[in-house]
């Protein structure tokens, strides 16, 4: 219940608490996004009416006085940003997508709650016309905070299957499925996987693709053939060591990123396993690293150049027409066969 005599307007968090839902659900209702049950939507709408909540109109007011700048926000540490080729590739691709415009691209890292709040204040002040978000984890509230500001926003990837914010993504399930199917067709029978962090939808999708292919080939998938990584090389080394300890008989590894595959290759070699003679190895991304390992890495190519350009295009469309529905773009992946499998 709202306290009597209150002068401050209700916040989105208070609407969420009043309705008994998360702030993301309230944002979805406000933006008329899909993925909300009719009963939940009605509950939220009643809470909005009861509290007298009014969405922030700052972004609309700014529509007539643009800044000529968009922010590319990476929600990862410097270590991951500089270590993983994906990030430099996506920055380059987004830049290429904006090259023929007068838009200035601003790059920033958001690594903590303090930096997240600081960036939200920056956006609220109207210093950018839109935001591109890369590597967002499932629990990250930043997309919802930007939605509350009515700030045009496009994600690289998505947080869940019912992501309400515009996004550009790859077919991660299909790509992983094709990688494991290739291993099966090559005669491999003891196939393990190194996953990404479980709070990232991209990692969940690549794991799902592995599980789908394994079930189709062999029936149920045992959890002991799955080891968790975090998209770093060190996690690929550690996870592969765990898999070898559990299953010395393994004859193939699907790693959910090239950089984890590089870590897996190091561990396999240290254990005296030949790649691909003893253990076949497949990664995901087709980053430049894939052609510099020995042997060169069989991997799933996601079209990073096309992803970055598409993100820029979708964001510019959202800036020009803020009343348009959210756009969801999923791009095809491709298995690239090299010497590691």
From TrEMBL:
GO terms for molecular function: DNA binding. Residues 10-64 form the HTH lacI-type domain. The keyword Transcription applies. The keyword DNA-binding applies. It holds the Pfam family LacI. SMART domains: HTH_LACI. Keywords: DNA-binding, Transcription, Transcription regulation. InterPro entries: HTH_LacI (IPR000843), LacI/GalR-like_sensor (IPR046335), Lambda_DNA-bd_dom_sf (IPR010982), Peripla_BP_I (IPR028082). PROSITE patterns: HTH_LACI_1, HTH_LACI_2. CDD domains: HTH_LacI, PBP1_LacI_sugar_binding-like. This is LacI family DNA-binding transcriptional regulator.
């Amino acid at each position: 219940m709202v306290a009597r005599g209150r002068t401050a307007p209700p916040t989105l968090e208070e609407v969420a608490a009043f309705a008994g839902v998360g702030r993301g659900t309230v944002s979805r209702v406000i933006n008329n996004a899909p993925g909300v049950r009719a009963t939940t939507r009605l509950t939220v709408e009643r809470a909005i009416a009861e509290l007298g909540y009014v969405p922030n109109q700052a972004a609309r007011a700014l529509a007539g006085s643009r800044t000529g700048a968009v922010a590319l926000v990476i929600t990862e540490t410097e270590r991951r940003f500089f270590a993983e080729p994906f990030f430099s590739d996506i920055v380059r691709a987004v830049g290429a997508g904006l090259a023929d415009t007068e838009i200035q691209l601003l790059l920033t890292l958001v690594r903590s709650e303090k930096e997240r709040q600081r960036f939200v204040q920056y956006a609220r002040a109207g210093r950018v016309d839109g935001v591109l978000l890369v590597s967002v984890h499932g629990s990250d509230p930043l997309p919802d905070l930007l939605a509350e500001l009515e700030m045009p926003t496009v994600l690289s990837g998505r947080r869940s299957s019912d992501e309400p914010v515009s996004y550009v993504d790859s077919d991660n399930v299909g790509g992983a499925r094709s990688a494991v199917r290739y291993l099966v067709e090559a005669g491999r029978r003891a196939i393990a996987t190194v996953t990404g962090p479980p709070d990232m939808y991209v990692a969940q999708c690549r794991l799902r693709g592995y599980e789908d292919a394994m079930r189709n080939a062999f029936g149920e998938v045992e959890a002991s053939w799955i080891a968790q990584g975090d998209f770093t090389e060190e996690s690929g080394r550690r996870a592969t060591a765990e898999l070898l300890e559990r299953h010395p008989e393994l004859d193939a590894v699907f790693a959910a990123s090239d950089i984890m595959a590089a870590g897996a290759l190091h561990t396999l070699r240290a254990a005296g396993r030949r790649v691909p003679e003893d253990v076949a190895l497949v990664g995901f991304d087709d980053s430049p690293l894939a052609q510099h390992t020995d042997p060169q890495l069989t991997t799933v190519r996601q079209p990073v150049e096309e992803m970055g350009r598409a993100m820029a295009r979708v964001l510019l469309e959202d800036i020009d027409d803020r009343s348009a529905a959210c756009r969801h773009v999923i791009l095809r992946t491709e298995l690239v066969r090299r010497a590691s499998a």
